[in-house]
Design brief:
The chain is of the alpha+beta class. It has eleven helices and seven strands.
C-alpha cells in the first residue's frame, strides 16, 4: 500500500507538470503569433507526445496506437485545413484547439481506470498471499506428534505402524497438493477428516468417542482444510485434557451446493486454554477471504460443552 501511495504521488506531480506545460503550449503561440505557421501545431503535438511518453511511459506504450491515431488525425486535419482554406486560419483555430484538447479527459479517465485496476490487483495479490500464509499455518504440530507416535509404534513393532504410515502419507499428500487448490471435492475433504480421526484414535491411550456422520451430495466442492481447524481444536482443547468420557461428535450434510457442518465436544472447564482462539481466528480470516458474506460461523459454549456450526453458501 505504501508503494501505491508513493507511485500515485509521483504520478500526480507529473500530471501537474503536464497541465502547466499544456497551458504554456497554448499561451505562447497565442502571444507570439506562430499559430499561423503550418508546422507549429504538428511540432507542438509531437513535443507533447514526447513529454507524455517521458511522464507516463507504461501508459503511453500500452495505448500508443490509440494516442498516436488520435493526434495524427489532428495533424492531418490541420494540414488539410491549411491547404484548402488558408484564408480562414483564424476561424479554424478554436476548432483545432478543441480537437487537441477533447481527447485529453478521455485519456485521463483511462489512466485513472488503470490505477484503480492496479490497486484491485494489488489487493487481490495481498489477499492471496495472506490466504497462503494462513493455510500454511494449519496443523503442523499434528504431523510432528504423529511422527513421534509412529516412532513409538515402530519401536514396539506394532502391527498398526504400516497403517499409520499410509494414512499419514495420504494426509501429507492432500495437505501439500490439494491444500493449495481453490476448491476440492467434499468427499475428498471427508476422507481427509476420517484419516485424521483414525490417526488420533491410534495415538490416544484412553477411550475417546469420536463419531463422524455425513450425508452429502456427489460433486459438491468446498475450499480445502476448513473443517480440520474445528476438529483439531476439539481434540486438542477438549479431548486431550480430559482423562475420561471424552467425546467429539461431527455432522456434515449438504443441501444443493450448501454445506452445513457441526462439531461438538466436551472439555475440562478448569483447564486453561490460552491458545484456543488462534485456530479460530485463522479460520475466520480464511472464511472472510474465501466466502465473503457467504458463510455463517456460530459458536456455543456452555455446560462444559463446546459446539461450532459452520455453514457455507457457495455461489449458485
Amino acid at each position: 500500500m505504501k508503494g501505491f501511495i508513493q507511485k500515485n504521488h509521483k504520478a500526480l506531480i507529473k500530471g501537474g507538470i503536464l497541465v502547466i506545460f499544456l497551458a504554456v503550449m497554448f499561451v505562447i503561440p497565442h502571444y507570439t503569433g506562430i499559430w499561423d505557421s503550418p508546422i507549429t501545431v504538428p511540432l507542438l503535438i509531437l513535443f507533447w507526445l514526447g513529454v507524455a511518453y517521458l511522464i507516463l511511459p507504461e501508459f503511453f506504450k500500452k495505448y500508443r496506437v490509440v494516442i498516436l491515431s488520435v493526434y495524427l488525425s489532428v495533424i492531418a486535419y490541420h494540414f488539410f485545413f491549411f491547404t484548402t482554406a488558408p484564408d480562414h486560419v483564424q476561424d479554424y483555430r478554436l476548432n483545432l484547439i478543441n480537437f487537441m484538447l477533447l481527447p485529453i479527459p478521455v485519456f485521463v479517465a483511462l489512466w485513472g481506470y488503470e490505477q484503480w485496476r492496479w490497486l484491485k490487483m494489488l489487493k487481490a495479490d495481498k489477499a492471496r498471499a495472506e490466504l497462503a500464509l494462513l493455510t500454511s499455518q494449519i496443523n503442523p504440530h499434528f504431523f510432528f506428534n504423529t511422527l513421534n507416535n509412529l516412532y513409538g509404534l515402530v519401536v514396539e513393532k506394532s502391527e498398526q505402524a504400516p497403517e499409520v504410515v499410509l494414512k499419514l502419507s495420504d494426509m501429507m499428500r492432500y495437505t501439500i497438493y490439494q491444500g493449495k487448490e481453490d476448491s476440492v471435492l467434499l468427499k475428498d475433504e471427508i476422507n481427509y477428516l476420517e484419516n485424521y480421526i483414525e490417526l488420533h484414535k491410534i495415538r490416544y491411550q484412553k477411550k475417546v468417542e469420536i463419531r463422524f456422520d455425513h450425508d452429502t451430495k456427489e460433486g459438491v466442492k468446498v475450499a480445502p482444510l476448513l473443517f480440520i481447524i474445528l476438529l483439531e481444536n476439539a481434540l486438542k482443547h477438549g479431548v486431550e485434557p480430559l482423562t475420561e468420557n471424552a467425546y467429539v461428535h461431527l455432522n456434515l450434510k449438504t443441501q444443493g451446493s450448501q454445506i452445513f457442518f457441526t462439531i461438538a465436544n466436551n472439555y475440562e472447564p478448569n483447564t486453561p486454554n490460552e491458545n484456543a482462539g488462534i485456530g479460530l481466528d485463522n479460520l475466520k480470516k480464511r472464511l472472510a477471504h474465501i466466502y465473503p458474506n457467504r458463510h455463517e460461523l456460530k459458536i456455543e459454549n456452555r455446560d462444559a460443552t463446546y459446539k461450532a456450526h459452520l455453514n457455507l453458501f457457495p455461489n449458485p
